[in-house]
Write a structure and sequence with these properties.
alpha+beta; elongated; about 60 residues; three-stranded antiparallel beta sheet
Length: about 60
Amino acid sequence: MLNKLGNLGSSLLERFLPTADADALRCITRCNAEGFWQDWCCDDNGRNCRWYGEPSISPC
């Protein structure tokens, strides 16, 4: 149980605290495949792109 709580706490911290990886990414908000707004982030070279964070509740 403690391990599960520790993992939950880590994921919450990752969401709210900036990390070195997040600082190195350039993000724009795009419509994802499910039809919701979400951040699309790439590194400074425009490569290694991925969806970042949780999708919004607003459809696009």
